TrEMBL record:
Region (Disordered): 360-379
Ranges occupied by TPR repeats: 154-187
Source species of the chain: Reyranella soli
Keywords, ordered alphabetically: Repeat, TPR repeat
One of the Pfam families matching this protein, by short name: TPR_16
Identification of the protein by name: Tetratricopeptide repeat protein
UniProt key word Repeat: yes
Entry-linked SUPFAM superfamilies: TPR-like
Amino acid sequence: MVGGNWRPSPERGTDPELRYLRTIVRVRTDPLEASERRLAELVAAQPTAFHAVEEHGSILDRLGQRDAARAEYESARRRRQLIRRGMPDRPFFTRHRTTSVAEIDGYTKVLRAGASNKGIFPYVARGHAYLTTRRPRLALLDYDEALKRAPQESGLLVARGEALAALGRHREALQTLDQAVASRPQDPEALSSRAFVLLALDRVAEADADWLRQLELLPRERHDVRACVALRLANYDMALVELESAIGRNPADPYMQLYFLTSLRRLGRSVQPRVDPVTVWPGPLIALHDGKLCPSEVLAAADNPERRAEALFQLGIWSYDHDRAEAGRLWRQAAEIAAPDTIEHAAARHEIERLRIDPPPISLGRATERETNKMAISK
């Protein structure tokens, strides 16, 4: 049974989070000085774990080390900002990636206390937390438990479809999302989820139909959301119009800045960044379009698979005007690396399809990663 006495076991790849939970258990019983040492070691081992940094700051505060505590709180705030949130056209629970295992632990305690008799919220909340911390198997268990209590809830069907897709079970995900769309055909987020599952199943035309329908349903004033859908379709003319308005409302959003430059360059227009340089990621990608970094420097800055996919896609945009064959190879690699629900994956797939219709002078044979790096560096 989910909840009650059911204790989630960590999925593969979650050992650092398990270490965090074990540390927190010890912190509750150990002297403050010992707890501070444990958390300092944990923060050193997991520099991106902002929840551990916050807990460390709390212990320092209790020890009277106010300046050190403030420094940790500020560090946690900066680390949160470095996490790329999901794009605004996706369901809300996929956008918030700062959920911590401490929240999951809290929801589990609520369920153990008997809150499971009061409705679906604890299951839904914990399911969303599992999904955003990349534990889709556990998320699916909670969503299924919630669906037993509310079988017609379309939002739960969307969440279940997202969990199945994260597990690579795309055909099952499509069946669930078909139910969600049938239940609420005017729901843009349900269409968004189904579109990326259709894309993962290579049903590109059907995915495009869902994105176009999503655009019809979205309010005109949701410029950031509409821009993201247009970018997935690689419709840069439409994206540019929406991005201008989105940046006007929120000039500090680095991804809106980046995608504005992307659209300008892909349309062959003059590229002029409108704001001060962004020092953190995606700053190197903005600097590429601004002529301040070369391709090899951009690739060197892409220090994880997600960033590498973004870099390869942008290098394809950068290469398109002068070497379409290279652009195609870069986009192929971006599509292979990027998660199916990212803008880069969808846009790269559409770009590759266009190159098939209007091919470059030489073949689009797949390049190895070493060849791609060599080509990019030669620029």
